[in-house]
Amino acid sequence: MVKGAKVHITFSLWRGVHSTSTVQSVINSPGRPTEGRRMYTLQQTVVHSIPPHALTRLAREWLTEDTPNFDAAGVCVGSQEVEARLLCKTPQSVLAGSPFFTAVFAEVGCSVDWIFEEGNKIGPDDVMLTAVVRGPARCLLLGERPALNCLARASGIATRCSQLQAIAALEGWHGEVAGTRKTTPGFRLVEKYAMLIGGVSMHRHDLSGMVMLKDNHIWASGSIKEAVKAARSVCGFSSKIEVECCSADEGREAARAGADIVMLDNFQPQELHVAARVLKEEFPTVLIEASGGVTPENLATFFSPHVDIISLGCITQGCPVVDFSLKVQTPSCSFKHPHVKQDV
After folding, report:
1. For residue 333, what is the DSSP state?
2. Within a 10 A sphere around the Cβ of 14, how many other Cβ atoms?
3. What is the number of other CB atoms lying within 10 angstroms of the CB of residue 219?
4. Which residue in 182, 192, 229, 341 is the catalytic one?
5. DSSP reduced 3-state for 183
6. What is the distance between the alpha carbons of residues 342 and 17, in angstroms, rounded to a whole number?
7. How many C-beta atoms lie closer than 10 Å to residue 274's C-beta?
8. How far from 256 is each of 108, 215, 282, 308, CA to CA, in Å?
């Protein structure tokens, strides 16, 4: 939201805030949620990392996918100006994806005013007004589903990442929790961005971002040494090389061949701790990554002073989404939600 912008709200947003208050007064009120403000300060630069042309391209692709030709339902509502309220119905969720949400509506000629900021936790109530969307009715409804899909998915990932990072902080672990390349085809930019908003590392973005030699690469090459040598001849000094290893001996071979990162894959926690300690003692500059079988429930058992990175596929696979809905307001249909306090 632009600093100083005022958007009139016709019902209570947080307890103790009266109707006809402005968004600015709500932000400055004692009831304004403060949790997540430090994260937002850190994540402002993350928002700026998304190229504007990427936002436009993705928004157009999503809209074209959802409405490839006629919009018959648009005839029912016409182009009169309407206002819609974005409601979050999953308390304590981390808001992520607002640039994509806004880009979708910008493509159809609508504006969005945000009440919560990117990276904030949304709460404390069960249903919270999160943003206000304005524009022609048929255009607003064209953007509704693509925008909500993006916001729900991104916020779900950011929320899970925030929870994982909180576990690491509670245990005092020094390393990095990271995502993987197990992302939804065509949606990777959003999902990787959501990881950063949630406070974890996104790992490599794609195959070109870093060299990872997995078991199939090793078997096809004949040995870890040959695979690392061949990869280094192409990537040179500018990219790290990571090797997936199934034993400490394979980890030694990878480190001696010049690997920058040794991934200990599918190790049980106790086996991991022993192998990581042995490798770190022999190769102190090599990064050790643990992956395979790690879940939010058992994450803490993988923490070790000798493990630098723990990656989890569940950050994007099987991650719950955040429940958002968009409710159009019209003079003839006053807003009445059973879980949102109404002014008398």
Report:
1. B
2. 19
3. 10
4. 182
5. coil
6. 11
7. 14
8. 56, 18, 10, 19
- Within 13 Å of residue 211, how many CA atoms lie on the same side as its CB? 22
Contact 337, 327 (CB under 8 A): yes
Question: Is 182 an active-site residue?
Answer: yes
pTM, 2 dp: 0.83
Q: 3-state SS of 104-159?
A: HHHHCCCEEEECCCCCCEECCCCCEEEEEEEEEHHHHHHHHHHHHHHHHHHHHHHH
| Tens of pLDDT, residue by residue, the chain (344 residues) | 333 333 333 222 222 222 223 333 332 333 333 334 444 455 567 888 999 999 999 999 999 999 999 999 999 999 999 999 999 999 999 999 999 999 999 999 999 999 999 999 999 999 999 999 999 999 999 999 999 999 999 999 999 999 999 999 999 999 999 999 999 999 999 999 999 999 999 999 999 889 999 999 999 989 999 999 999 999 999 999 999 999 999 999 999 999 999 999 999 999 999 999 999 999 999 999 999 999 999 999 999 999 999 999 999 999 999 999 999 996 654 444 444 443 32
Tell me how far apart the alpha carbons of residues 70 and 72 are, in angstroms, rounded to a whole number: 6
Round to whole Å and give the CA distance between 31 and 264. Answer: 47
Q: Are 118 and 96 in contact (CB under 8 A)?
A: yes
